[in-house]
Amino acid sequence: MPSPKRAALLGASGYTGADLLRLGVRHPGLEFVALTANTHAGKPMASVFPHLAHAGLPDLVANDDVDFSDVDVVFAGLPHGASQELLSRIVDSHPDLVAIDMGADFRFRDPSHYGPVYGADHVAPHLQAQAAYGLTEHNRDSIRSSRIIACPGCYPTATLLALLPLVKSGAISDQDIIIDAKSGVSGAGRGLKQNTLMAEAGESLTPYGVGVHRHAPEIEQEIGLVAGKPVSVNFTPHLVPMARGELITAHVRLGSAANAAEVREALKAAYRDEPFVRIGEAGEIPSTGHVRGSNFCVINVFDDRIKGRVIVIATIDNLVKGSAGQAIQNFNVVFGFPEATAIEALPLFP
Questions:
Q1: What's this model's pTM, rounded to 2 decimal places?
Q2: Most buried by CB count within 10 Å: which residue of 20, 23, 29, 287?
């Protein structure tokens, strides 16, 4: 077993930060030595997240108060725009440190694509060559050798786990992909927003980012990579009145596969040795309740009544496999721990 690593978490007062700590404190190879949250600096973690009161965590501090020379790995749970600026200073100044970013700032392989999507030019394009796209099941070799791990967005994680091996194998077409996606309100972050107030989000299902959501280009980037050409996807996310969970329904054309059974077999072959991806049996409909609180992804395929098409459904917990759990999975890959360490817990049900 490798020696324990000293970790800092930037943005410890957000939902992804809280779940990273919930999972990470059980990791025998992780010691959290610094937790940052500028607006809560000086507070004990228990005052921000009472459910972590017994975890023995250090008090929150400001980003500028951390001595990163004493840190092996930095986890970042910051909004887009914040990670690139802070991580560029940290990584440039500490050449032995690894950064695992749960935010969006290093997900585009070509940093020139960042500005049109996020509305501002990337401030640290020189670091992109040192970054790996952190979809663990499909990019382990790059993750293992990179200094910055850019964990995918939650929607891309579910979508790409479902579709990448199918496009790569030719089982489905890379054309005319329609993705209907739904997520719990924790995906919108912990900040006060009118649309996530209980009176607004409760008992109401709402599409958002219609036709322009920033995760669509990320999905297109990765599908295009395995397709060997640019692709376009139709992607529409929806806010669901539940705290956590995510489910995507992809409507796709068949390629070399003749039906849903053959597509399902292609997925089983691709994920046969993967600890966190389960392909359902014929007729089993994935549900967010099948993965809640866990690092698992459940996928299944169904014949469409429209000839030549199938429906691929995938579900994850947006805060675990879609963020914090995937970050720890990548930490395990980078530092040589067994990949399931600290994230092997089964889903919560009911």
A1: 0.96
A2: 20
